Amino acid sequence: MSSQQPAVAETTAGPVTATDRRRWIALAIVMTAAFMDLVDVTIVNIAIPSLQRDLGASFGAIQWITAGYALAFAAGLITGGRLGDIYGRKRLFLIGITGFTLASALCGFAVGEEMLVASRLLQGAAAAMMVPQVLSIVHVTFPAHERGKVFGLFGAVVGLGAVSGPLLGALLTQWNLFGLEWRPIFLINLPVGIAGLLLGRKFIVESRAPKALRLDLVGVLMVTTALLMLIYPLTRGRELGWPLWGHLCMAGSLLVFAAFVAYEKHKTRKDGSPLVELSLFKVKSFAAGIAVQLTFGVVMGIFFLVWTLYMQTGLDWSPLKAGLTGVPFSVAVSAAAGLSVQLLVPRFGRKVLQAGAVTMAAGLVIYIWEADRYGMAIHSWQMILPLVVMGVGMGLIVAPLTDAVLSEVPRQHAGSASGLINTTGQMGTALGLGLVSLVFFSSVDASIGESAGAPAGEHTSAPGAVGTAFVEAFESSLWWVAGVLVVIFVVMFALPAKPKQHVEGGTTEEGQGGSPDFETVPRAEEDVEQDPEQDPEPEPALSR
Question: Which residues lie in Acidic residues bias regions (predicted)?
């Protein structure tokens, strides 16, 4: 047995000692990669004004810089997980982190908005190869009795990523390192990615599913086409004057989605390896949960972008001031998330998630009242109350939602269901970012007297008028978000009153697993093989 072999894989000489510290190095590597992805989701928003000044980017391009990442990630997430099952999770992780690092370099050195949008699409696609492997690698690297602690650490990383993204983006933009303005928010990924690649090759054990399904490339192409047909006209329509082809394209996306469903049914009958397991939607709680995940993604996509534009363009705040303003929100989300999972949901079940929707809507109403009352003179400290209320509401929803959705899903479909939940959330975020043109920028144009087809960012009104228009558009957008949360509250009645099992952590109430076993693959000079009877537990969902 090689001295470099990971700790918990089964070898021809017996199991590796549980005291081997190399598995913790592997954990640090994959957790760092997950953190890097989480930060890149939010770090861009805070640098939007700097991007506009430096590249002359339109608001439509800004939407694509944010939505493109989410769209590419959503479209490739299920495929990335499937590729890891077939060709090896370590291999796909290394390919993903390499692509993510290269795409970050292209983003950092982009010479125009077109190059930056294309690079963000590539970055999202690479993340879709990297992220699905993270918890799978954790599963095969750690024995069952240690995974609870490890997944707890992962939850902490998720919370840290939510807090760190806006703050890190604000600091890097405010410091204007080497005169690069916004570019360091992407270039900071280069040393992290290179270190992850080199260390990952040495310390991560290879693994794959012994009964991996085939790739559904036609399904991937169809669902990606349908999403592009829907989101591209939403994002570009305002700048182009809402042309007829845009409306036809959006209507046609529904037909492509319908064709996708028909093809998936055919694929299931043909070889049993569809991209989406449609039988899952026969489970009422799962279907309702997917609807909640999609609409909640829309809420997040709209709110975070318009919030940034409101603070930095409307109120003319610096990136650092805007980033620090969001700290109470992030802290409240993390605190409420831990409280809901550990104490509230086990006792009150579904009511906790519904209370979260109501609380978040209440925070939005408070924010609307304050924005209207104080206008351009509002201060950061006056935003603390609505942001904390909203953060508590969001934390009550995001942490237990996955378990609530999966609680009645058959164990053998837990992996597919988890991937579909995460993909749907990303699709919702991309859709929400696209809808910003309707709920925010249309209001801005109406407020400052521009036609709907005028180029974004070329306002000729006085700066004060532009700021007032952004404040009014922000208030209007929050009413839309609050309305969506009311819909989410109603749909949540279809979720089970109390979760019957805990799939995400890898066990049910009976302590039985439900996903295919892992199979580790030998590396050069290392005979690594996982015992097919060891720890047959389902893969946990990777919540974002």
Answer: 526-538
